Amino acid sequence: MNTAPVVLVTGASRGIGRGVAVSLAEAGFSVAINYVRNREAADNVAAECRKIGKSDQQVFFPIQADIGQSVDRESLISLVLKRFGRIDALVNNAGIPPAQRVDIVEATEESFDEVIGVNLKGPYFLTQKVVQYWLKDKTEPAIPGGFKIVFITSISAETASTNRGEYCISKAGLSMVVKLYASRLADEGIQVYEVRPGIIDTDMTSGARGKYDPLIKQGLVPQRRWGTPDDVGKAVRSLLEGDLAYSTGCVIDVDGGFHISRL
Ligand code: NAP
Asked: pTM of the predicted model, to two decimals?
């Protein structure tokens, strides 16, 4: 059984999740690489992690599960425990945009249910399962400073986009989930963080390149560039390495300064 600290990263086959998995591999963690459809991409991430891992105690396996489905969340935890023997941290990253951007005056209940199911209900209840395992199992954490949970939210937690209301609501709700779990788990020695990315260059944003390129150049993002999965990965890595020992329930903005109100 491996002894490197084990991190479950949801949606780690592409984009930000991939960036997180690779940063963690570089830092000596084992990573359970969750994906929903894209097995080949997940295998590639596992291979890349193995190449850059720092010790032979680290292991990397893809694990299929739809975090929007209760039975899949259950099987995801059992499979991680079976293959890795433990869980030391959870990174709730998997998320989806609405299939189509539609004005809230017209948007459908089906789209609302789908986005909320994956982006909000999924991580809320997946976290509950992992926490139940930690509280029941009482094993010593192999990670500096105790077990940790990171939620990847979005600038959409606070920025209103009226043509994807369900996405904004899912991320605003997730931001409250961070506060709830952070309050509940502080006494248990478990830290909970919100990482809030801005406009990041991934498959999710590829269709909006034409819209964002000029806006970013004009200063919508004070640092005047797109964010990368690596930017987010390094932020998560720093949290899991225990660098923010006296912080919990806080927001880490990884957005090039987008969140600053300016006049
Ligand atoms: P992406 O490139 O579309 O990748 C999405 C990842 O999530 C893939 O690995 C996908 O797996 C997985 N996934 C999707 N639905 C899933 C489900 N039901 N169960 C399990 N895994 C699922 O997205 P991204 O841009 O990296 O976004 C990652 C997270 O960051 C999301 O929560 C998103 O809301 C958030 N975020 C993104 C941006 C941005 O600008 N890109 C900004 C702020 C926040 P498959 O490969 O198997 O499909």
From this structure: 0.98
